[in-house]
Amino acid sequence: MRWWAALKNPEMVLSMLSHNKRVQNDLNPAANPWRTQAPPKRLRWRPQLSFAASVVVIAWLVHPAFGNPAQVTNLFQPLSQPAQEIKEVSLLVLAICAAIFLIVVGLLVYAIVRFRHRPGDEASEPPQVYGSNQIELAWTVLPILIVFVLILVTSRTIADIQNRKPPPGAVQATVVGHQWWWEIRYPELGIVTANELHVPASTGNSRQPTFLKLQSADVAHSFWVPQLAGKTDLIPNRENRMWIEPTNPGIYLGNCAEYCGTQHARMLIRVVVQSPDEFDRWVRDQQQATSPATNAAEGRKAFLANSCINCHTIRGTSARGKFGPDLTHLMSRETLAAGVVPNTADNLRLWVRDPQKIKVGCLMPNMQMTDQEVDQLVAYLETLK
Ligand code: CUA
Fold this sequence. Notes:
By secondary structure, the chain is of the alpha+beta class. It is 41% helix and 17% strand. The chain has 12 helices and 13 strands.
C-alpha cells in the first residue's frame, strides 16, 4: 500500500502505533477497564477542569510582569542590529515549529474524535497492520530535512553575528559583571563608569557600532538588553565579545540574565543611546577630573578618611578602590545601586546611611555614620557631576 493511501486510512496508522498495547489489552481485558465500562460522568470532566484552573492560576501569577508595558522590553521590537537579525531567524523557526504543532495537534484531534469509543466497539477488532516502510521512511526523512534547514539558518546567523569585525572608529567598551552591578570601561577614551552604558546611535551614513568585551569579577553573569542584542554571558577568567548597533536614541533597559546571587534580579543595565554629538559631549564631560569641592570640604574629608576609599575611586583624589563603582561622575548617572532607585539626594542619603535597606545583601556595608556625617558626605557626593 502506498503511504498516502495509508494516510487516507488513519485507522491503519493508529493500529500500527498501538498494536502492541492493544494485543496486550485484548489478552487481558482487566488491563483496560474503560473498554468495557464508560467512566462515571463526574470523573470525565476532572482533567479539563484542573487544566482550566491551572491556566487561570498561572495567568494570575504572571500578569504583574505585564502590568506596566513601559517596563517590559519587547523581544519582538528590536531597535538595533544584531537583535533585528536574531528576531528574523526566530520568526522563521517559530513559524516552522507552529506549522508542525498545528499538523500534529490537528491529526491528534481528528483521531480522538473520529475513533472515539462507541457502543458496540467491543465486538469488533480494527484492521491490524504491522509496519510500513513508506510511512516510516517519510516520518524519518521529513524531520531530518526540517532540522537541517533549522541548523543552516541558525548557524548562518550566529556566524554572521560572531564574525563581525569592528570598523575603524567603532566605540570599544569593556563591561565587567560584579555582584550586583556593572562596571563599564572605555579604555581608549579613559572613562570608567557604572550601570549605564552610553553609546552613539548609528545614523544613515555614519555606522557607529559599539563592540563590547565582557568579563566577570566574581561569578557568571549575563548581559542582556533584549531590544539591542541576544544574551552573552560574563564568565570569570574568560573574555566574551558582543556588539550592538542601535539606530534610535533613547534608553534601553536590560537585566543580568544568569543567576548570580541574592540581588541577581536587581542587577539592571541601562544602555543610553545618544546622537553622535551628544555622545561626544558626554565623553568630554566624563573625561574631566572633578573639581575640588570647595563648598563640601567636610564631606570630602569624611569620604577620604573612611574606608569608602578602599572600594571606590574618585579621580583626582586618593580614593582608588576597585571593588565598588567609580564615583568620579556619580551624579551624571540616573540611578543608584544598578537601577534599583533613582539617583536623588534623598535616596543617596538612605543609601549611604544603610545600603542594606535598599539592596539587601549588597557588598557595601552600613558604615555606622552619624546623621551629620551622612549629610556632609551626601553634600560632597552631590558635587561629583
Ligand atoms: Cu549578575 Cu545575575
